[in-house]
Amino acid sequence: MATEGDKKMITLKSSDGEEFEVEEAVAMESQTIRHMIEDDCADNGIPLPNVNSKILSKVIEYCNKHVHAAAAASKAGSDDAGAAAANSTAASGEDLKNWDADFVKVDQATLFDLILAANYLNIKGLLDLTCQTVADMIKGKTPEEIRKTFNIKNDFTPEEEEEIRRENQWAFE
């Protein structure tokens, strides 16, 4: 059994066969992986057929950062320094927000793959972050601008488009 200083490690296997050794606490950020661990299905590594190594390494980076930030915040919160601990916790929360903002500054394909991985692995924080990033990319744009942003071909005729606008007039008011 792992002692106090040792961290239990879990092996995650990406769809392209690469293996990643991660701390159990980090792996358990994923509810999907948490259930596999709880059901004793993690002894020979956990295969993740829907996540390639490039995306899995990004997911692990995200989970690592959030687990260690939460551990640091709870440690700071349990100190007797009171106001100083509250200030450092607020500062670390701000640091984490900035880190998250930088984390999602990736190309669209990577962002969409991160959304799929976060959904498959059931990592709510990562799913919320990545989906909010896409929502922010859409916010305030016209349909034409959205099509350009996401490289979507307009397959409506002008007549069909006008009919849709009439049917959904409430959305344009």
From TrEMBL:
Domain SKP1 component dimerisation residues, every copy: 124-171
Subcellular location: Nucleus
GO CC, any one term: nucleus
GO BP annotations, alphabetical order: jasmonic acid mediated signaling pathway; protein ubiquitination; ubiquitin-dependent protein catabolic process
The UniProt record lists the keyword Glycosyltransferase: no
CDD domains: BTB_POZ_SKP1
SUPFAM superfamilies: POZ domain, Skp1 dimerisation domain-like
Main localization, broad class: nucleus
Source species, domain of life: Eukaryota
Keywords in alphabetical order: Host-virus interaction, Nucleus, Ubl conjugation pathway
Residue span, SKP1 component POZ domain: 8-67
Pathway this chain belongs to: Protein modification; protein ubiquitination
Pfam families cross-referenced by the UniProt entry: Skp1, Skp1_POZ
Assembly, per entry: Part of a SCF (SKP1-cullin-F-box) protein ligase complex.
Family: Belongs to the SKP1 family.
Role according to the record: Involved in ubiquitination and subsequent proteasomal degradation of target proteins. Together with CUL1, a RING-box and a F-box protein, it forms a SCF E3 ubiquitin ligase complex. The functional specificity of this complex depends on the type of F-box protein. In the SCF complex, it serves as an adapter that links the F-box protein to CUL1.
Name of the protein described by the UniProt record: SKP1-like protein
